[in-house]
Fold this protein.
Amino acid sequence: MAYINDNFTKIQHRYLFADVAKRVAAYKEQNPDVEIIRLGIGDVTQPLVPAVIEAMHRAVDDCAKAETFHGYGPEQGYKFLIDKIIEHDYKLRGINFDSDEVFISDGAKSDLGNIGDILSVNNLVGVTDPVYPVYVDTNTMAGRQIRYIPCNEQNGFMGDIPNEKLDVMYLCFPNNPTGAVITREGLQRWVDYALSHNTLLMYDSAYEAYITDPEIPHSIYEIPGAKECAIEFRSFSKTAGFTGVRCGYTVIPKELKIKSSDGSFAALNPVWNRRQCTKFNGASYISQRGAEAVYSPEGQRQIKEVIKYYLDNAKIIRSSLQKFGFKTFGGENAPYIWVKTPGNEDSWSFFDRLLHHAQVVTTPGAGFGTSGEGYIRITAFGSHQNSEEAMRRIEKMG
Ligand code: MLT
């Protein structure tokens, strides 16, 4: 007799973005001629930059010849990419890693979901609320208890350091969905909390490329002590338009140790390596060559232009909405704008109104958690034209 994992009955019936897509599809079916502007899911709209395209073409050519063909790659990723990541994303910020501390994957979402494989189901998990649904869903699927730390206007969408002892805590900065960013001092407080409670921090920095303020940390490892308590997740999706190509990476420092059931401390790095060897065959050679090109001088120049393009959208959206009298948060050093609904309207109702009366798709804040009620999230990943047109339509809607 086979039994289903009952924990799946405890998660929301539909994944948030699938739910939004279903409502949009239903509306589109009834209104086939209307032009919908999609500022809901944070999917990029600008093409891959030329440096990445050229590198991927070369990689395809490699695979066309027996001498340069690539089959299964290392489960941990190719050294050519790992070395670039260590050099550019860490060494330039004064942080040193060995190549076996970086694991390449097919994206941060997979790693954030899979990391639970190496953790006990008995861990008490903390998340900020509102929250990227993947942290909550994957821990609920595994049967872990979750504590929600409210992030609201009063605490600057930061959430207060908890009084109780959490075993695992997820942090995401620049934040999805609120667009909030954390200072070095703020992050140091989390690291201090983690070190004094033996808490494992899961630091999702998928949006670090949007930070323009030099005072804001890009990596948790800029904070002293973080190597002993934190795993960092990064992605090429929003940095270089890889939402469809798929490539990301996870850093697990060798110093990072957590408790085994016999009371001794065990390093997580070899355990994750073991997990990946069994369950993962590595990200594709072509994606990894594309990601490597992101670090070339042309690649850097080109992706920075695209990031600026999206940040300009964020500015258009933020300033327009403020002009129309909306209260907005985020959208600076971050690609998401968090918007208070007018007159305390609930998130899904305002989402529906924007869809039906302005044909603009957003994401209802309540879909990210209880504290997201009364807000919607707008992404800056559209085109300039669509961002401007969406604002015109919202203004007209009144
Ligand atoms: C979002 O819209 O929150 C993101 O695009 C989802 C993701 O990165 O998986």
The pocket of D-malate is lined by residues 41-43, 109, 132, 176 (CB under 6 Å). The chain has two domains: 11-46+298-397, 51-296. The longest strand covers residues 124-129. The chain has a mean pLDDT of 97.
